[in-house]
Automatic annotation (TrEMBL):
Region of interest (Actin-binding), residue spans: 705-727
Biased composition (Low complexity): 196-220
Annotated binding of ATP, by residue: 170-177
Keyword Metal-binding appears in the UniProt entry: no
Protein name (record): P-loop containing nucleoside triphosphate hydrolase protein
Highest taxon, organism lineage: Eukaryota
Domain Myosin motor span(s) in chain numbering: 77-827
Pfam families linked to this entry: Myosin_head, Myosin_N
Region (Disordered): 195-241
Domain Myosin N-terminal SH3-like positions: 23-73
GO MF: actin filament binding; ATP binding; microfilament motor activity
CDD domains listed in its UniProt record: MYSc_class_II
GO cellular component, one term: membrane
Length: 894
């Protein structure tokens, strides 16, 4: 947000006053348990300790010097890019973010990152006027904004004909999904401009590239016209046929935007942290035709939290669609045999049912309309809700047990409903759940299940049904939106959960943290490449270490295959071992890596592993922190266990939709793999599964992630980090320790650490000369002088050590902190110059005053002397005679 500007002189005076106050003391940030950091100044230093006077309250604290962080001069307050701070420490970073957030500036750059702090209120930052403000503008021409990131991606794509990606991460509730929507809003608006603006507007003042794409971008563009917005809400009656090019574009854009409510209905849920929390990660690619218009879109999804359909904490809800269907389903509910209310369904009535401010009925209409716009036929829509309803019915299947602990289904009517909806025979379904057939040696035998086993089977079925249907839903959206063309380029937006450290971390956290480790490695490598390029461009020799490599051991520890096996492969192996348990898996890990280090053929990730001391699990040293994982239930989670009797029944469903969801299981032989009866794994050799057989959750995620990474590697990335400011979902409050934790986890501090190792502060020659020439008077002769040479002479005179600066071909580079020192020297000098100037001015005015006083004194004395003479003469007779005759003595004129 733009702050109200003070007049230039008022601003300068304010800055000077602050600077003067600042210069009087040695200001530092003092660590504080509650507030994170507090301001204070060093009163005195004694050995390794400092006596600090706290700015708020004035009390004294004795603090070790190493714990203190230097404060940046006030000139750096509210800087738009944290990288510009000369003291790059955690305290200064968070102070700057807090200052900015307090004044409504939720966006701040941190080098390559855009940091976005959730405002928890609606801010006027996303209007059409703001979109126009960011069109065709460079990053430094406007305050930091998510639109600036989208604009840069768009311009880079046009100029360089290269695919772009915008990576948005953050913890739950930080604003990732909102940011993703803003990016798509911006891209949709500017792509509309491309088509709606007249050709005469088509030259961009800021872009000079001659590519047809760039030249098609309008100078100012038309405002995002209201018809565009109306179109988003238009009735779904628009059919693709017979539309003009412009009309088709409108439909496609609407479809892209309407894909979101569908994904949110099926993939989002209310959680304690966020009323509309995405329970999956997504990578949305928007493709653009060479003329800059939107050509299509495609969505990839990751790690859906499918367990939510069966369990969740009491204060949370299942996926929105369950409640929407129950609220608005009407006659559809009858067809789905959903006669009851929410309370009547076991999978819904154990936890929260309503969310403040959310009208499920209204959301239902929005969902239906979105499905229509994206092009789901009524039959396809029915299939989606068929699965939702089937899950609710499965949840209500009552299972009891006989005396021999064999599971039985006392009331088959519920199973009948399920089977009716899923198009499968009741008898086969019941048998598959209660008494599946397994191969024992060479014989097929029915094996009775316990009540718990049968219930687990049913919940596994629900999770699989939901996940598969979600996958099919996304595929169907992609069919509607995806129009690949060899000439198109894309901007991909990745919205994925950030690093997670909970009290209890389990398999899901390992997968998400592994993903984040890879993404951070990608960032570090990208930053390294850019820095290298900048140094090379500027002709600076600097052996910059590739910090992407720092993370490799941890990544190897998790994902390695082959001889140096990693945790995920180890887990896969255990999943197919007879009698393996979570404990044997944990022991195996410890056996591999918990021994003494120092052997030659040591696993690259060994150093990053530690066995857990008090619980069954292990610790991994991630870039963000050391995280302890508990391994309870990992084998089951990884196998995603669904009895192949059940899957085969579903694969043979008379309902095509259901059969296609399970098509991969259709020709599966019933197995009796070493994992035990009914296990879906078929082993061929020690490591790895039979080709075409099912993959574990870990394998699937590894493959998906590898595909994502290779896509990202083929793009020019942009990074957005979303931050939750406080735990109360309230605007205006910044909980510093919480924010610091996130900055640490999301790699912002890591990015700063890396930047500090190089030369983070850099100034063009002209700017350096303008600001600091005052420190080197007479060094640069009047007239023209080459900028580089001028800088060289200046730094020589300033007596800077060679190691703390580098002179490039157009810029001068400094190590962190050097600019603060130069600033201080400049301030001292200016202080000195101005004090002397003031002294001279005061002397001059004082002298003038004295001169005036002296002149007055002389004048008074003259008057007095004359008055005295007159007084003496006045009564002298000769004088009286003289005055009387003198007029007659005066010669008469005329
Ligand atoms: N830029 C913003 N302006 C106004 N409100 C916002 C903004 N960003 C986030 N919010 C608020 O914060 C809430 C949570 O944001 P969002 O759903 O985007 O978080 P998320 O990071 O995607 O979380 P999750 O990982 O749980 O899906 C939103 O519902 C909205 O109320």
């Amino acid at each position: 947000m733009l702050l109200p500007r003070l007049s230039q002189s008022a601003e300068a005076a304010r800055a000077a006053a602050l600077q003067a106050e600042f210069n009087e003391k040695k200001w530092v940030w003092v660590p504080d348990d509650k507030e994170g950091y507090l301001a204070g100044w060093v009163n005195k230093e004694e050995g390794d300790f400092g006596e600090i006077i706290m700015a708020a309250g004035g009390d004294f604290r004795r603090v070790p010097l190493y714990a203190l962080s230097k404060m940046n001069p006030p000139k750096f307050d509210r800087v738009e890019d944290i990288a510009d701070l000369t003291f790059l420490n955690e305290a200064s970073v968070v102070h700057n973010l807090r200052l900015r957030y307090g004044s409504g500036a939720i966006y701040t750059y941190s080098g390559l990152f855009l940091v976005a702090i959730n405002p928890y209120q609606s801010l006027p930052l996303y209007s059409d006027a703001i979109i126009q403000q960011y069109r065709n503008k460079r990053r430094d021409e406007n305050p930091p904004h998510i639109f600036a990131v989208a604009e840069r991606a768009w311009v880079n794509m046009g100029e360089e004909r290269e695919n772009q990606s915008i990576l948005i991460t953050g913890e739950s509730g930080a604003g990732k999904t909102e940011s993703t929507k803003k990016v798509i809003q911006y891209l949709a608006a500017i792509a509309t401009d491309v088509h709606t603006s007249p050709p005469s507007h088509s030259r961009s003042p800021t872009l000079t590239s001659s590519s047809s794409f760039v030249s098609s971008m309008p100078t100012t563009g038309l405002p995002r016209n209201s018809s565009f917005r109306r179109a988003h809400n238009a009735s779904p009656s628009v059919s693709g046929s017979g539309l003009t090019a412009k009309g088709r574009l409108g439909l496609l854009e609407r479809q892209i935007l309407q894909a979101n409510p569908i994904l949110e209905a099926f993939g989002n849920a209310q959680t304690q942290r966020n009323n509309n929390s995405s329970r999956f990660g997504k990578f949305v690619r928007i493709t653009f035709a060479p003329d800059g218009s939107i050509a299509g879109a495609n969505i990839d999804w990751y790690l859906l939290e499918k367990s939510r359909v069966v369990v969740r904490s009491e204060a949370e809800r299942s996926f929105h669609v369950f409640y929407q269907l129950m609220a608005g389903g009407g006659t559809l509910k009858e067809s789905l045999l959903l006669g009851g209310a929410i309370e009547d369904y076991e999978y819904l009535n154990k936890s929260r049912r309503e969310v403040d401010g959310v009208d499920d009925l209204h959301e239902w209409s929005a969902l239906k309309s979105a499905l229509d716009i994206v092009g789901f036929t009524p039959a396809e829509q029915f299939d989606l809700f068929r699965i939702v309803a089937a899950i609710l019915h499965i949840g209500n299947i009552a299972i009891t047990s006989t005396r021999a602990d064999d599971a039985i289904m006392p009331d088959p009517s519920q199973a009948e409903r399920v089977c009716h909806l899923l198009g499968i025979p009741v008898a086969e379904f019941t048998r598959a759940v209660l008494r599946p057939r397994v191969l024992a040696g060479r014989e097929w035998v029915s094996q009775a299940r316990t009540r718990q086993q049968a219930l687990d089977e049913l919940s596994a079925l629900c999770k699989t049904l939901y996940e598969k249907s979600f996958g099919r839903l996304v595929d169907r959206i992609n069919e509607a939106l995806d129009r690949p063309s060899s000439r198109s380029t894309f901007i991909g937006v990745l919205d994925i959960a950030g690093f997670e450290i909970f009290e209890i971390n389990t398999y899901e956290q390992l997968l998400i943290n592994y993903t984040n480790e890879k993404l951070q490695q990608f960032f570090n490598h990208h930053m390294f490449v850019l820095e290298q390029e900048e140094y090379a461009r500027e002709g600076i020799h600097w052996d910059y270490v590739n910090f992407g490599l720092d993370l490799q051991p941890t990544i190897d520890l998790i994902e390695a295959t082959g001889n140096a096996i990693g945790i995920l492969s180890c887990l896969d192996e255990e999943c197919i071992m007879p009698k393996a348990t979570d404990l044997t898996f944990t022991n195996k890990l410890s056996g591999l890596w918990a021994g003494a280090t120092g052997e030659d053929d040591e696993h690259p990730g060994k150093q990053k592993y530690e066995p857990a001391r008090f619980a069954q699990g292990f610790l991994i040293q991630h870039y963000a922190a050391k995280v302890e994982y508990r391994t309870d239930g990992w084998l089951e989670k990884n196998k995603d266990p669904l009895n192949d009797n059940v899957t085969r029944v579903l694969a043979a469903s008379s309902e095509r939709y259901v059969a296609t969801l399970f098509a991969e299981y259709s020709d599966l032989p019933v197995s009796s793999g070493p994992g035990g009866p009914g296990n879906m794994f078929t082993v061929t050799k020690k490591r790895g599964l039979k080709k075409g057989a099912f993959r574990t959750v870990g394998q699937r995620h590894k493959e998906q992630l590898a595909s994502l990474m290779s896509q990202l590697q083929a793009t020019q990335p942009h990074f957005v980090r979303c931050i939750v400011p406080n735990g109360h979902k309230k605007p205006g409050r910044v909980d510093v320790p919480l924010v610091l934790d996130q900055l640490r986890c999301n790699g912002v501090l890591e990015g700063i650490r890396i930047a500090r190792l190089g030369y983070p502060n850099r100034l063009p020659f002209v700017e350096f000369r303008q600001r600091y020439e005052v420190l080197t008077p007479g060094i640069i002769p009047p007239g023209y002088m080459d900028g580089r040479e001028a800088c060289r002479r200046m730094v020589k005179t300033l007596d800077l050590d060679d190691s703390i600066y580098k002179i490039g071909t157009s810029k001068i580079f400094f190590k962190a902190g050097v600019l603060a020192e130069l600033e201080e020297r400049r301030d001292l000098l200016l202080f000195d110059i101005f004090s002397r100037l003031q002294a001279v001015a005061r002397m001059w005015t004082a002298r003038r005053q004295i001169k005036k006083i002296l002149n007055r004194a002389i004048a008074i004395r003259t008057i007095q002397r004359n008055a005295r003479v007159y007084g003496e003469l006045r009564d002298w007779p000769w004088w009286q005679l003289y005055t009387k005759v003198s007029i007659h003595l005066t010669p008469q004129v005329g």
